[in-house]
C-alpha cells in the first residue's frame, strides 16, 4: 500500500477545499491552469494505460513559486482534461522541492517517473555535500505508480555526487529526460552547471535497471553564447533527426532570431538512420549534436520549459506559457497563476523545426467565418470576427504599389476601447511586432517583441486567442510568439485591421470551452 505523507495529505486537503472557489469562466477556455495556486513547468508528459498524463510544477498554497509539488491531469483526447489530487509533495529528507522530470511506461507496465529532488535549507551554502549542514543539493530520483497513486523509490536518490563528474556542481544538476532505448537500456539527459565558468551543459546517463546509473558523455556545453545555466532538457528524434531542446537562463542576444531573458532553444542535429544503441548514441553526439544548429522555439513573451511526447507517429509539445522573470507578477487577488500552451505538433519544413496546434482543435470549432478584406488607411473593425476564444487564420498580401511604398499591416485584437494587443508587420524589413503595452497589465513586464519573419509580399498568421493568452504562428509555424493577457477585460473581443493596399483572406473559428473534470 502506498504511504501518504503528512505533507502530501495536507496539500490534497487544501486544494480540494479551495478548488471549487474558482468558477469555470475564471479559467482559460482551452488552456490548462492549475487546480489552485501556482503552476510552472510541465512534467511527466506521457501516454499510459489509454490516457495522456500531464503533471506540473505546483504550489497549491500561493500564486507565487515556493516549495514545489506535482499537480496532475489526465485526458483521453488532449483536449478535455480531468484534475487529479496532488501526486508529489516534498516529503522526503533529501528534498525541499520536487523539481521537474519525465515519465515513461516501464518494462513491467508501471508508470516510471524520474525527477529532481532539490534540497536547499540554508541561507548560505556550505561545503558539506551530505546536505545536513545546509548545502543546496540537486539529485535525480525515481517513483512508480499506476496512473493514479505513486510511490517514491526507497533507495532514492539514484543519481547523485557519485555519478556526477567532478567538473560539475551538485548545486545545479536537474530536470532528467528519461527514455528506454531500442537496446533495452534506460537513458536520461540532465543539465548541470560547470564549476569552471558557471555555464550549463547537457549530460547523458545510462542504466540497465533505472536504479544504478553511469555517466556516458556531455551532449553539449554552453560556450557563453546561450545564457548562463540551462534547464529542462528534452532530447528526441523527429523525422530521423536528433533534437536537443534547452531552456536558457539569462540569454543576452540582440538578434531578431533569438531573444533576451529566459527562453527556449532547440539544437537540431543531422539525420540519423536509426535510433542508436549505447555505442551509436555516443557516436551520434560526437558527430552531430555538438555541431547542431540552434533555433528559437518561441520568441514571444511567455514560453518556457517545454516537454514532448510521441504518440501515433506525432511528436507533441506542451510548454509553460509564462516567462520565469514574470513569476512574481500574478494579478491582485488571483486564485491561480500560470498556464500551459495548447499542445503543438512538431515537424520539419526543410531544415526548419516548425510547430502547429494539434489537429484535435478542430473538434472545438463552433462556427466558421470567411472574409476577403481590402484594408484601408483607416482602422476598421469586423463584427463577424469578434470573440475571445478563437482560432483565427490570416493570409496577408501586399499589392506591388503597397510593397514599394513600404506598406505596414496593423491588427488589433482582444480590443475594447483603448485596451488591445497590437500586431504589425513591415513588408520591407520583414519584422513582425507584437505590442501588449495597451493590455492593461498592472505589473511592469516586457511589453514588445519584434521577430524577423522575412521580407515578402505575403505573410500567413494564425492566432489562438483565449481569455488570458494568445499564441501566434507565423508562416505555418516557422516561428511562434506566445503571450499571456491576464488583466484585459472579458469584453475585449473586437478585432480590427489597417493598411493601405493590403488584401486579407480571413478564416475564423469560434471555440468551445474544454471540459475540465473536478478533483
Biggest sheet, spatial arrangement of strands:
19-1-2-3-4-34
Please tally the helical runs, counting DSSP H or I stretches of 4 or more residues: 3
How far is the N terminus from the C terminus?
22 Å
| Shape label | globular
List keywords for this structure.
single chain; 519 residues; mainly beta; 6-stranded mixed sheet; 6-stranded antiparallel sheet; 3 helices; 6% helix
Explain what the structure shows:
This protein has 519 residues and is mainly beta. It is built from 3 helices and 34 strands. The strands form 7 sheets. It has a 6-stranded mixed sheet. A 6-stranded antiparallel sheet has the order 22-33-24-29-30-31. A 6-stranded antiparallel sheet has the order 23-32-25-26-27-28, with no helix packed on it. Strand 25 and strand 26 form a beta hairpin. The protein is globular.
Topology (elements, then pairings):
Elements: H1 6-19, E1 37-48, E2 51-59, E3 69-75, E4 81-88, E5 97-105, E6 111-119, E7 137-145, E8 150-152, E9 168-180, E10 186-194, E11 200-207, E12 213-221, E13 230-238, E14 241-251, E15 261-268, H2 278-287, E16 293-296, E17 304-311, E18 314-320, E19 336-337, E20 344-349, E21 352-357, E22 369-374, E23 380-381, E24 390-398, H3 400-404, E25 408-416, E26 419-426, E27 431-435, E28 448-452, E29 458-466, E30 469-474, E31 479-484, E32 494-498, E33 502-510, E34 516-517
Parallel strand pairs: 1-19, 4-34
Antiparallel strand pairs: 1-2, 2-3, 3-4, 5-6, 6-7, 7-8, 9-10, 10-11, 11-12, 13-14, 14-15, 15-16, 17-18, 18-20, 20-21, 22-33, 23-32, 24-29, 24-33, 25-26, 25-32, 26-27, 27-28, 29-30, 30-31
Amino acid at each position: 500500500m502506498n504511504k501518504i505523507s503528512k505533507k502530501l495529505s495536507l496539500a490534497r486537503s487544501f486544494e480540494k477545499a479551495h478548488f471549487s472557489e474558482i468558477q469555470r469562466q475564471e479559467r482559460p477556455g482551452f488552456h490548462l491552469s492549475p487546480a489552485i495556486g501556482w503552476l510552472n513547468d510541465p512534467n511527466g508528459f506521457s501516454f499510459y494505460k489509454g490516457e495522456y498524463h500531464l503533471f506540473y510544477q505546483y504550489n497549491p498554497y500561493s500564486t507565487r513559486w515556493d516549495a514545489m509539488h506535482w499537480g496532475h491531469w489526465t485526458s483521453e483526447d488532449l483536449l478535455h482534461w480531468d484534475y487529479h489530487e496532488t501526486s508529489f509533495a516534498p516529503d522526503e529528507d533529501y528534498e525541499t522541492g520536487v523539481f521537474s522530470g519525465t515519465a515513461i511506461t516501464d518494462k513491467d507496465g508501471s508508470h516510471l517517473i524520474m525527477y529532481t529532488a532539490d534540497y536547499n535549507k540554508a541561507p548560505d551554502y556550505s561545503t558539506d555535500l551530505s546536505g545536513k549542514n545546509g548545502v543546496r543539493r540537486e539529485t535525480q530520483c525515481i517513483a512508480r505508480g499506476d496512473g493514479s497513486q505513486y510511490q517514491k523509490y526507497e533507495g532514492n536518490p539514484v543519481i547523485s555526487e557519485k555519478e556526477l563528474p567532478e567538473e560539475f556542481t551538485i548545486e545545479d544538476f536537474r530536470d532528467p529526460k528519461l527514455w528506454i532505448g531500442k537496446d533495452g537500456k534506460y537513458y536520461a539527459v540532465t543539465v548541470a552547471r560547470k564549476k569552471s565558468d558557471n555555464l550549463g551543459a547537457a549530460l547523458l546517463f545510462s542504466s540497465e535497471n533505472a536504479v544504478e546509473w553511469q555517466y556516458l558523455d556531455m551532449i553539449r556545453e554552453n560556450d557563453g553564447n546561450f545564457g548562463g545555466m540551462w534547464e529542462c532538457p528534452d532530447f528526441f528524434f523527429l523525422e530521423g533527426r536528433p533534437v536537443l531542446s534547452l531552456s536558457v537562463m539569462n540569454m543576452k542576444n540582440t538578434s531578431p532570431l533569438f531573444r533576451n531573458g529566459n527562453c527556449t532553444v532547440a539544437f537540431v542535429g543531422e539525420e540519423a538512420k536509426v535510433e542508436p544503441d549505447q555505442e551509436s548514441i555516443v557516436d551520434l553526439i560526437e558527430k552531430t549534436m555538438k555541431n547542431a544548429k540552434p533555433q528559437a522555439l518561441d520568441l514571444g513573451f511567455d514560453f518556457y520549459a517545454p516537454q514532448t511526447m510521441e504518440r501515433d507517429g506525432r511528436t507533441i509539445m506542451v510548454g509553460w506559457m509564462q516567462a520565469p522573470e514574470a513569476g512574481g507578477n500574478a494579478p491582485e487577488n488571483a486564485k491561480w497563476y500560470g498556464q500551459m500552451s495548447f499542445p503543438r505538433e512538431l515537424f520539419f519544413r526543410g531544415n526548419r523545426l516548425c510547430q502547429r496546434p494539434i489537429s484535435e482543435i478542430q473538434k472545438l470549432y463552433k462556427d466558421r467565418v470567411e472574409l476577403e478584406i481590402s484594408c484601408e488607411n483607416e482602422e476598421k473593425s469586423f463584427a463577424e470576427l469578434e470573440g475571445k476564444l478563437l482560432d483565427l487564420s490570416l493570409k496577408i498580401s501586399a499589392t506591388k504599389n503597397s510593397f514599394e511604398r513600404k506598406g505596414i499591416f496593423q491588427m488589433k485584437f482582444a480590443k475594447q476601447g483603448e485596451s488591445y494587443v497590437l500586431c504589425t508587420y513591415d513588408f520591407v524589413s520583414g519584422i513582425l511586432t507584437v505590442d501588449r503595452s495597451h493590455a492593461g497589465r498592472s505589473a511592469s513586464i516586457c511589453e514588445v517583441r519584434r521577430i524577423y519573419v522575412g521580407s515578402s509580399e505575403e505573410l500567413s498568421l494564425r492566432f489562438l486567442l483565449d481569455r488570458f493568452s494568445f499564441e501566434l504562428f507565423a508562416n505555418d509555424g516557422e516561428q511562434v510568439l506566445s503571450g499571456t493577457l491576464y488583466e484585459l477585460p472579458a469584453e475585449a473581443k473586437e478585432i480590427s485591421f489597417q493598411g493601405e493596399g493590403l488584401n486579407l483572406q480571413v478564416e475564423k473559428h469560434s471555440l468551445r470551452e474544454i471540459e475540465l473534470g473536478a478533483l
